[in-house]
Specification:
heterodimer; A: Ribosomal Protein S8, Chain: A, domain 1; six-stranded antiparallel beta sheet; two-stranded antiparallel sheet; about 35% helix; about 25% strand; B: 11 helices; globular
Chain lengths: ~190, ~290
């Protein structure tokens, strides 16, 4: 937000997504599995705000259709779900991690192509460690990742998250400000 | 908007010029008032929260509110503010803090009960837009001029005695001029401040609509709150009178109050603008 925007009481548009660093996860995943022992759960999700406009609905429907028709080659399945806060999740499942990232990238590219890039909230990559879920969340506005380890009732494994940060900092662009490590509870992955 | 801010600035310049020419203890006075404005910047958030009986809540205590604000912060590209809840039947919400890093957003238990999740989301997005636009900072700085003038007016007698200093014939006219100018400055800056505040309310409404993508949800929330506001006990309203500038809807919605003295634009105007945004979103705007 520029000075003039602040002076005049706000800009006209939401911040557009930062340059895409989704594919950084492909190489990072190899390191996560080999060096830290994090196994991916064959699943990833993309979450966005569904707008109630005809145009937006068409783009989302077309994207899902595109993913389903590509499934014949890639084997990636796609499910759509709305959470209690009114955000839409597209949940992708595939044992091939690179296919997952490609599919996520397709969704974000379709929405951005339709001019709705600012509605993208995050991508979530699901891993596990000794049966415990470990997530990496990609924030589109920031173009950065952060770890999210939910434990119990709305509690976070902050220690594990900070350790993960140190472990993958060379592989992934990590969000530097801890107050922007926003949790996403009840991730459907 | 620009004109309003220009006029405020101009007023300040003229005011200082008159003060200096009147030759009273300008330096000392500005020091005191400057100190008060700084104190206001740094402590008003805690004072406001205490006045409302608000207390900070953890994600365990208010999971829904936290999760809602987490998502809005991602969308608005803001760091997470502190989140507080005030135990009050009055359906309202406000944001305090001089910068996004020091911000606290507060909702009353009344508003959380009254509104549907999407309406509440619109209201919280409105408060976050205030945080993002640094409205508390802007309004505090804007109120500086009014504070200076109010202080002189209040302490006119005190200054008058010192200015007099036994030499009544010379100092008399100077003192009266300063007093009159102060009153005038206060009156004008007050009206301009109210105008500035109204502009920034529209700005926050627009910001909220952008972040949620649902202008109609905020419009519906505003209608619900304003309908509800008239039904709450007067005592509660009067107690909250000081806090109006930070509220999403002013505590008293008397139709008789002239709009020029109001911190918030009339509800109809806000709802109309939100409907225009919805029309733009739907692609049906002309």
């Amino acid at each position: 937000m520029g000075f003039l925007d602040a002076l005049l009481g706000g800009g006209k548009k939401l911040k557009a997504p930062a340059p895409d660093r989704l594919f950084a996860m492909v190489t990072a995943q190899v390191a996560l599995e080999a060096e830290i022992g994090l196994k991916h759960r064959n699943a990833a999700g993309i979450v966005f705000q569904p707008l109630s406009t005809g145009d937006f609905k068409t783009i989302v429907a077309d994207t899902v259709e595109l993913l389903r028709s590509a499934a014949a080659d890639t084997g990636t399945t796609v499910d759509s779900a709305d959470d209690e806060f009114g955000y839409r999740w597209l949940v992708l499942r595939d044992s091939d991690f690179e296919d997952l990232v490609t599919a996520l990238n397709l969704v974000s590219a379709e929405l951005q192509g339709g001019g709705y890039g600012d509605r993208l909230l995050a991508c979530v990559f699901a891993f596990e460690e000794a049966g415990q879920p470990v997530y990496f969340i990609y924030n589109f506005k920031r173009g950065a990742y952060y770890p999210f380890v939910p434990v119990g009732d709305k509690q976070r494994g902050t220690e594990r998250e900070l350790r993960l940060k140190a472990q993958v900092a060379s592989e992934l662009p990590i969000e530097p400000e801890l107050e922007r490590w926003f949790p996403l509870w009840e991730i459907p992955l | 908007m620009l004109l309003t801010m220009f006029l405020l600035g101009l007023l300040y310049v003229v005011f200082v010029a008159v003060l200096v020419s009147a030759g009273i203890g300008t330096g000392l006075m500005l020091l005191i008032v400057g100190g008060m404005v700084l104190a206001q910047l740094f402590f008003s958030d805690k004072l406001a929260l205490r006045a409302m009986g608000a207390r900070e809540v953890t994600p365990q205590e208010a999971p829904g509110l936290h999760a809602m604000i987490d998502r809005l912060c991602i969308q608005a590209d803001l760091p997470k503010p502190k989140i507080a809840v005030a135990d009050s039947e009055m359906p309202n919400a406000f944001a305090v803090g001089r910068s996004p890093k020091n911000a606290t957003v507060c909702a009353t238990t009344g508003i959380m009960r009254t509104l549907e999740p999407h309406e509440l989301e619109g209201v919280m997005a409105h408060e976050l837009a205030h945080v993002k636009n640094r409205d508390v900072l802007v309004m505090t700085i804007a109120s500086f001029f009014a504070s200076v003038a109010a202080m002189i007016t209040q302490n006119a007698f005190f200054f008058g005695m010192f200015g007099g200093g036994g030499d009544d014939e010379d100092s008399g006219p100077g003192f009266i001029v300063v007093l009159l100018v102060s009153v005038l400055v206060y009156a004008i800056s007050f009206v301009l401040m109210m105008a500035l505040s109204r502009y920034r309310e529209f700005g926050a409404d627009r910001g909220a609509a952008l972040v949620t993508g649902r202008p109609s949800a905020l419009a519906s929330a505003l209608m619900k709150i304003s309908g509800q506001m008239q039904r709450v006990p007067t005592q509660d309203l009067r107690a909250a009178g000081q806090m109006n500038a930070f509220f999403i809807v002013p505590a008293s919605v008397k139709k008789t109050a002239a709009t020029i003295f109001s911190t918030h634009p009339p509800m109809e105007a806000r709802i109309e603008r939100l409907q225009r945004l919805e029309a733009q979103l739907q692609g049906t705007a002309v």
